């Protein structure tokens, strides 16, 4: 019991010493400044600086970190003025997608002919010889059990057009 009274007395003295003799002049000066401000005054909002968007326009150019590619202009394939896409025909649904998104997944055959099943553009589509596929005016030429042969018409960069063969190979089960 004596130890507890001694402990109580020591803790009382230590707490009593915390509040005695403190210098609060800096706190008093701040409170005086706050009280001297006129009532109802609010600082104005900061001026809004609108975001200026930036469009990166060099995405199609060669990377400055890659060595330049030497193009042999003499041996480069030239386009023809006779080859050009038919701009008057109605575009088919699968022409809105890049040909790289398509994979051949199978074939179907019936009395009307042979059809290829291509996966891509949100589903599996049935196509036949003569249908168009891809954004570069790709026309299906041949369908066999292992691949679909497509011929694309692409610009040569000098006002002419080139025919570029492409193939969609059958995708095996993974």
TrEMBL record:
Superkingdom: Bacteria
Signal peptide: 1-16
Keywords annotated in UniProt: Signal
InterPro entries: PilP
Protein name as it appears in the record: Pilus assembly protein PilP
Lineage, uppermost ranks: Bacteria, Pseudomonadati, Pseudomonadota, Gammaproteobacteria, Pseudomonadales
């Amino acid at each position: 019991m004596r130890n507890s009274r001694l402990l109580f007395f020591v803790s009382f003295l230590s707490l009593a010493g915390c509040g005695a003799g403190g210098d609060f002049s800096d706190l008093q000066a701040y409170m005086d400044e706050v009280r001297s401000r006129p009532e109802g005054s609010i600082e104005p909002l900061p001026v809004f600086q609108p975001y200026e968007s930036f469009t990166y326009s060099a995405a199609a150019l060669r990377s400055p970190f890659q060595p330049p590619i030497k193009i042999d202009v003499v041996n480069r394939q030239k386009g023809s003025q006779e080859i050009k896409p038919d701009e008057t025909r109605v575009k088919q649904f699968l022409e809105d997608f890049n040909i790289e998104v398509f994979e051949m997944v199978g074939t179907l055959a019936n009395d009307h002919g042979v059809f290829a099943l291509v996966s891509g553009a949100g589903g599996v589509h049935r196509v036949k010889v003569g249908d168009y596929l891809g954004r570069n005016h790709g026309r299906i030429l041949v369908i066999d059990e292992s691949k679909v042969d497509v011929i694309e018409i692409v610009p040569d960069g000098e006002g002419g057009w080139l025919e570029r063969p492409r193939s969609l190979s059958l995708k095996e089960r993974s």
